[in-house]
Write a structure and sequence with these properties.
alpha/beta
C-alpha cells in the first residue's frame, strides 16, 4: 500500500543450495508481501567460511544508516537459509519491544538460546550505531582475540560479545519458540522450544538429515493449511508477548 517498511529481512544463499533451501526461501514471500518486508538475499560469498554472515548484516546496517532518518528500516531480522515460514500472519512487529513503552527503548537485539547456548540462526536487531559496533566486533573478533576458541565460529564470537559489559545491557533473551522454533517429533509431548500450530517458523540447526526433514515441513507449509496459518489473535503470541514485556 506504499507504506514505508519498518523491518527488513536478511539472509544468505549461495554456492549450490539444495532445492529444499530454495523452497524454504520461497515460503518467506507471502510473509514479506503481507507485512511489507523487503528481503535482502546475498547470492555469493564475501569472506571465508561463515564470516560472510556478519559481514553482510553489517553492510545492510551501514546501507540503511546512510539513508535519511525517515527513510531507514528500523529493524532487521536475520534468518538462516534453513528456516521455513509456517504462519505468514504473524508479523515480526508483534514480537518486538513495545514502541509505546520507553522502558524498552534501549533494547537493540533479541536472541534465543538452545542446549548449546546462543543460537543466532534467527534474530531481530535494531538499525542503529550500537548494532554497527556489535557486528564490527563480531567480524574482527577472531583477529583481535585469536587465543579465544570459537566452537561455533561467528555464533561463538557473538555469544562472547553480547555478554560483554558494553553490549549486554542492550540485549534481551526471549523465548526460543517465538522466532526460532525447532521441529517436534510426532506423537510426542512438545518441549517449550518446539514448533506448534500457529507459530511463525521452524528452523533446522544441527540436523543430520536436514534436507529430508525440511522437505517434510516444506510440504506442510506449502499446503497453507488453515490450522497452521491463523490470524495473530488466534495464536499464543499476544498473551505470551504481553506477559513477557
Amino acid at each position: 500500500l506504499g507504506a514505508r517498511p519498518r523491518i527488513g529481512k536478511v539472509t544468505i544463499l549461495f554456492g549450490t543450495p539444495s532445492q529444499a533451501y530454495e523452497r524454504a526461501l520461497r515460503t518467506h514471500e507471502l510473509h514479506d508481501r503481507l507485512n511489507n518486508y523487503p528481503l535482502h538475499v546475498l547470492r555469493y560469498s564475501l569472506l571465508d567460511d561463515v564470516w560472510t554472515k556478519p559481514a553482510y548484516i553489517l553492510s545492510i546496517l551501514l546501507r540503511e544508516l546512510a539513508k535519511p532518518k525517515g527513510e531507514r528500516l528500523e529493524w532487521l531480522l536475520w534468518v538462516d537459509g534453513d528456516t521455513i515460514i509456517l504462519n505468514p500472519y504473524v508479523p515480526i512487529e508483534s514480537l518486538l519491544p513495545p514502541e509505546d513503552d520507553p522502558e524498552w527503548d534501549d533494547v537493540h537485539l533479541l536472541v534465543s538460546h538452545d542446549w548449546n547456548g546462543l543460537n543466532n540462526g534467527v534474530f531481530p536487531v535494531r538499525v542503529n550505531i550500537w548494532s554497527v559496533e556489535l557486528f564490527s566486533a563480531i567480524l574482527s573478533f577472531r583477529f583481535y582475540r585469536p587465543e579465544q576458541h570459537l566452537q561455533f565460529r561467528d555464533q561463538s564470537a557473538m555469544d562472547f560479545l553480547i555478554q560483554d559489559e558494553h553490549f549486554a545491557p542492550n540485549v534481551i533473551r526471549t523465548p526460543q519458540r517465538w522466532f526460532n522454533a525447532y521441529q517436534g517429533e510426532h506423537n510426542e509431548t512438545l518441549e517449550a522450544f518446539q514448533v506448534r500450530r500457529g507459530d511463525l517458523l521452524v528452523h533446522f540447526p544441527g540436523v543430520g538429515d536436514r534436507d529430508e526433514r525440511m522437505r517434510f515441513w516444506l510440504s506442510r507449509a506449502e499446503k497453507h493449511a488453515p490450522d497452521w496459518e491463523v490470524e495473530l489473535k488466534h495464536t499464543s503470541y499476544p498473551e505470551e508477548t504481553r506477559d513477557f514485556w
